[in-house]
Recover the amino acids of this structure.
């Protein structure tokens, strides 16, 4: 949450969907596109990933108003090979392009067992876990990635040439919690460094470098410099591979060719994504998968906790628990986001 | 290298291949299986990855002799869906099973654009980069993973229930160096902790935990404990996802079901692997790919180095340079490995 927890308000999923839909309809999006967009952004809020949820109305709205994003994209879906789909997003809102790609990849994977959709001409597509969840609910395992605006220096380099590209994996658990991993390649998000700076605290020298590429414990220097990837050269390698698959192979922009939506909000970003989907129904019965997934989760969670106050966790567990709770009790939203949605909706 | 660099000897690629082949033939492997195995292990040595090269004759040989690995596997290749291949390795030597899976996946990817092979009933399959290179040379991008014996505790847990599973990516560069990433999920290899212990040095508290799961700076305690994954919960999540794809979905063993080849060398390990292959020729011409890959590499390598003595690197660069050099000048091998090969070969 961007604001203090106490200031947040609760809103039901239905109310939030309705409000979000009206806001984006007023911004010029078509009905089906609005449905897809709201599916992803509201799921992000349900998961507690509020920085990637409807708070994005701020940047999406600004860019839609000045023509930086196309509200009525003519998205092209091309079959490049029986199981490869190429998507030209026509500079549409990211989750609209993402949902089209996901659906095309699921369709082709139903037919061939595995398929990939490569999307170009896109924008920020939200978090990955909502796509992985939609896929898992239909029995698909997934590997999904996107490139992003540059914030990471090449390993050994001294300027930002690589995005903090997210990579996600999902594996369905037919009778239990799906396993969902959604991660960016930096040790921490910039927000965490910003918070340390505000509190006047030093940061570990593994979080970021100064503007010359040297590791630093000074949060101000790190904010002027670059995020450090997890595991040093390993995270750098991963971020680079995600950009190769999501950007280069998809015929989108990559590395420094990606326009920053902050520096040039009126320009198309030409972001790229990839969606690899595998139909687990081809691998065994639902019962087979269910028994194995239950056993897998039990083995991990039966490990005695190192600290008894912190139980063992598995990827997706926290987000799925939050989703269940917020579907029941309402979604915690910042008043600023709700106000902005209401302004756009014309309330 | 396991021995001091000065003690290593140079041997030509052809001589090493011939010696390696004779050793594994004497251990009972069939001719084609020996070819495949030697392709992978010699390429590991050419890359400088000697711990994953022909030095493995030690463990492979021990296990072949006592029936822990099947020298004459009847490998089954089954089409589970048009673009999904299921491989039953019949407890063959890992690289033999791996090569069969890679070839089946490349064949299906030629037909459908993308394909996946899931292998079960396998053993240690060497490093990933040789498979990625073989694929890249034929124009395939790849995502390849394997599970492994347990050395990592679940995040927040206190006993080893998860392998340090390797994950690899490859993207072909038709007129330049292919991009190859081959990484395990631990911050460092156990060997690095062992070396610190031998030198009487402390280790950073990010490398491993003690036997109770608490981070430690004592190398002895870390050797009795568990490796820590890169980026904490992120690397844990990645290791777990690799096991889900390589082990659980492939119908192989996973997590603690995997037999340790050290504790039970006479038992089948039932390791699993996955090979996702994408035919880049379906995405654009060789010239299109070549221009983009060259541009991608140039953007990264043009970043001014933070330390002028350490130029910017890209994944695979070091290994491919080493391969080129060693193909010309001979391969650096430890005398122990050569002696063992000669013993098995009956010289």
């Amino acid at each position: 949450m961007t604001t203090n927890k106490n200031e947040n308000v609760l809103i039901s999923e239905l109310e939030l969907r309705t409000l979000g839909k009206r806001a984006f309809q007023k911004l010029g999006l078509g009905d089906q596109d609005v449905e897809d967009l709201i599916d992803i952004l509201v799921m992000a809020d349900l998961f507690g990933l509020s920085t990637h949820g409807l708070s994005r109305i701020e940047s999406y709205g600004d860019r839609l108003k000045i023509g930086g994003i196309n509200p009525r994209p003519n998205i092209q879906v091309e079959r490049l090979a029986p199981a490869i789909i190429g998507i030209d997003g026509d500079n549409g809102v990211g989750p609209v392009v993402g949902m089209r790609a996901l659906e095309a990849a699921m369709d082709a994977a139903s037919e061939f067992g595995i398929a990939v959709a490569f999307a170009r001409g896109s924008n920020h597509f939200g978090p990955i876990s909502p796509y992985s969840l939609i896929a898992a609910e239909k029995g698909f395992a997934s590997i999904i990635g996107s490139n992003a605006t540059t914030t990471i220096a090449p390993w050994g380099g001294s300027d930002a040439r690589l995005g903090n590209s997210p990579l996600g994996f999902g594996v369905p658990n037919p009778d239990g919690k799906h396993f969902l991993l959604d991660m960016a390649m930096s040790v921490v998000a910039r927000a965490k460094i910003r918070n340390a700076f505000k509190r006047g605290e030093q940061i570990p020298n593994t979080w970021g470098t100064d503007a010359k590429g040297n590791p630093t414990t000074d949060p101000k220097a790190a904010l002027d410099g670059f995020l450090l990837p997890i595991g040093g050269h390993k995270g750098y390698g991963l971020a680079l591979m995600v950009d190769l698959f999501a950007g280069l192979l998809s015929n989108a922009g990559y590395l420094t060719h990606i326009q920053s939506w902050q520096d040039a909000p009126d320009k198309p970003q030409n972001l790229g994504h990839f969606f690899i989907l595998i139909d687990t129904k081809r691998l065994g019965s639902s019962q087979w998968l269910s028994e194995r997934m239950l056993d897998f989760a039990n083995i991990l969670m039966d490990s005695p906790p190192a600290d008894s106050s912190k139980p063992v966790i598995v990827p997706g567990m926290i987000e799925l628990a939050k989703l269940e709770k917020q579907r029941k009790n309402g979604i915690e939203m910042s008043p600023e986001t709700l106000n902005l949605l209401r302004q756009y909706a014309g309330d």
